[in-house]
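Bench log, entry 3. Co-assembly request; chain sequences pasted below exactly as received.
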Amino acid sequence: MSSATIVETVGGMLRGRVAMVTGAGSGIGAAVVSAFVAAGARCSGVDIKARDDLIACDVTDETSVFRAFDRASEFGPVTDVVHAAGIVSLGRVAETSIAEVRRVLDVNLLGSFVVGRLAAQRLTDGGSVTFLASQAGIKGSAGWSAYCASKAGVMRLAEVLAKELGGRGVRVNAVCPGSVDTPLLDEAVAAKAALEDTTIENVRRSYVRAVPLGRLATPDDIAKVCVFLASGLASFVSGASILVDGGELD
Ligand SMILES: NC(=O)c1ccc[n+]([C@@H]2O[C@H](COP(=O)([O-])OP(=O)(O)OC[C@H]3O[C@@H](n4cnc5c(N)ncnc54)[C@H](O)[C@@H]3O)[C@@H](O)[C@H]2O)c1
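Structure output for the full assembly:
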């Protein structure tokens, strides 16, 4: 069965929406911007990377995120935020420096808090926030210490915000991908191979073998779920953490 293009799948679902997507310079965030545009939204991409088509913003810095909201609002009041900016770091607990834990928590958890805080202040009623958490926030795996801790925190933050903003009709959810073929995964696979004294190919094969659907996710697989969550199809979905892992976790 051939898979439908993103436009065939999501065309028109977000017409009239104004979105801001963090982490838009790569991987999942970039795919979310394309999918939101294909779905009819006016969409601004935000990233720490400087690029002409992106709003420069460090999600750990509140002033920077405030300015990014201002820029994204040039299309009209922002209705939907997808927060995909994140970093990965591998290391066993005993061997991970506190400085490294702080770096990961700073971007993944504090960054989510900053984006969530400004979204709570500035999103229109009836809007949505979608956080990219991870399968790693649901279940711990050896070597993923700080990353797992950060993503579990993101899931709880989404639940709290869903409760706090529900009265305004703002829905807040987390998406928990398994292994998605992006530069972040390449970095994780290389680090895992080094930790386990094996090859990158072996680690990659083991990740594919673990997925009942028999492949890694593409960024589009995750972006489609983000479109769904921002759309009217998800009108009663809030406070949810949606696992998108091809059936991997049992
Ligand atoms: N790839 C996977 O297998 C996978 C699995 C589960 C969850 N996730 C999560 O999905 C999200 C996107 O991951 P990806 O795989 O697309 O990664 P990626 O590395 O391809 O893209 C992440 C983007 O975030 C940006 N970024 C990093 N720090 C930032 C900061 N302080 N401020 C603004 N932007 C910043 C980077 O510049 C990059 O463009 C992340 O939160 C990641 O943890 C990824």
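DSSP finds eight helices and seven strands in the chain. The mean pLDDT is 96.
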